[in-house]
Amino acid sequence: MRVVIKPGKLEVGAWTANYIIERINAANPTPDNPFILGLPTGSSPILTYEELIKRHKKGDISFKNVITFNMDEYVKLPEDHPESYHAFMHKHLFDHIDIPAENINILNGNADNLEEECQRYEDKIKSLGGIELFLGGIGPDGHIAFNEPGSSLTSKTRVKTLSYDTIVANARFFDNDLSKVPTTALTVGVGTVMAAREVILIITGYNKSRALREVVENGVNHMWTVSMLQLHERCILACDNHSTMELQVQTVKYFNEIEEISQKNHK
Known about the structure:
By secondary structure, this protein is of the alpha/beta class. The chain has helices at residues 9-27, 46-57, 85-92, 114-127, 164-170, 190-194, 209-217, 249-265; strands at residues 2-6, 35-39, 66-70, 72-74, 104-105, 133-137, 158-161, 184-187, 199-203, 235-240. 34% of the residues lie in helices and 16% in strands. A 7-stranded parallel beta sheet has the order 1-10-9-6-2-3-5. The protein has a 3-stranded antiparallel beta sheet with strand order 4-8-7, with helices on one face. α7 links the parallel β9 (199-203) and β10. α1 crosses α2 (46-57). The radius of gyration is 18 Å and the shape is globular. The two termini are 22 Å apart.
């Protein structure tokens, strides 16, 4: 596990976007050999998306040969609802880059058969050779996507009932009215994320500090589902200083020294 610590969330967003751009450009994707990218919603990736848009407009990156798969979507929320993840992705990324509409994949929370929709999603990922890079964020309770505490660490894309805490937390997006908040969602599983060849998690803010501590310093635990990423062969945690406040000083020093040595070796 690689831990990259930057001063603030702006620097984390810029670093993460640059890393994604370098990975896509190095792959030199074509229509017959596209780059498969997993993407999250929520507040964590917004600065990264803003930087990707900026760099795209400068001509540093094209998304014409990139195929995306999003992590999750609410059930029975219209796609054009402002709080749907379809709307979120178009607002914060897709409407501002050159990705073809047919290359965008987001779970259909209004499908007639939700279980079949989840299986279709998994099958499509596999048919394309799997996800090359999965970008993600984490919740304060250490969840990834909608894999809340107690979720199976080998889970695949599925229908997930949301916890009361999640519903309360999301009420701020629905006029603080709990009755308006969806209670179920479709989500990729922990196992789906683990199957990606590389994973980057954006972790910023003091409210994520305990989750980061659990992921970095403690063991794999299904009550902190993102801790499963300890077992991934290529996982990067992109963090800001605020999120490291509960890590041991020696832990922070260790990872900072590793990055300094790595940067010197690449000069």
